[in-house]
Design a protein that fits this description.
It is built from three helices and eight strands. By secondary structure, it is of the alpha/beta class.
C-alpha cells in the first residue's frame, strides 16, 4: 500500500523583504543533521484547504499568527520521504516582523536578505531558479504561469 501525503512549503517574508530561515535539529528523522530550511508540513483533516495548512504550520513552527497575505507560487515538488509519497505545494507568506518562538523541531532562526537566504538554505534543486522565483514573489508576482511539477 502506498501512503500519500499532501504537504506545503512556505517562504516567510516580513515588511523589510527579509526571508525567514529556520535551523533544524540534528535529530531530524530523515536527514539526521542540522541545516537551514523553511516552514514545511503536512495537510491535516482539520485544515479546510492548503492555505489553512500554511497558517497552522507557520504558527506551529514560528509562533507567528498574524499573516498579511499568502500567495501560491504554482510550484509543486513530488518526492518520497520515510516511505511516504509526498506532493508539496509551494507558497510565500507575508508577515509583520515579530519575535519568533521556535518549536522542538528547530534550534535557531535568521531573517535574511534574498542573497544570504539563497546562500544558506539547504536546497535540492537549482538555486538560480529559486532566486528567480523568490525575486518575483517578493513583489507578489508568480514566476510560473502554469503549475510546474518537479519530481525527485
Amino acid at each position: 500500500m502506498v501512503i500519500k501525503m499532501n504537504k506545503i512549503l512556505t517562504f516567510i517574508v516580513n515588511e523589510y523583504n527579509e526571508i525567514l530561515l529556520l535551523k533544524g535539529s540534528e535529530n531530524d528523522p530523515q536527514f539526521k543533521k542540522s541545516f537551514w530550511y523553511v516552514v514545511t508540513g503536512g495537510c491535516e483533516e482539520c485544515d479546510s484547504n492548503r492555505e489553512e495548512t500554511v497558517k497552522r504550520e507557520v504558527k506551529e513552527e514560528t509562533g507567528i499568527n498574524k499573516i498579511k497575505d499568502i500567495l501560491y507560487l504554482n510550484w509543486i515538488f513530488k518526492y518520497n520521504s520515510l516511505g511516504v509519497t509526498c506532493t508539496e505545494y509551494v507558497y510565500i507568506t507575508f508577515v509583520k516582523k515579530e519575535k519568533i518562538t521556535l518549536n522542538e523541531e528547530n534550534i535557531d532562526y535568521k531573517w535574511c536578505d534574498i542573497k544570504e537566504f539563497i546562500e544558506k538554505i539547504q536546497w535540492y534543486r537549482e538555486k538560480e531558479e529559486l532566486y528567480n522565483v523568490l525575486k518575483e514573489a517578493l513583489d507578489k508576482k508568480i514566476h510560473f504561469k502554469i503549475e510546474k511539477i518537479e519530481e525527485f
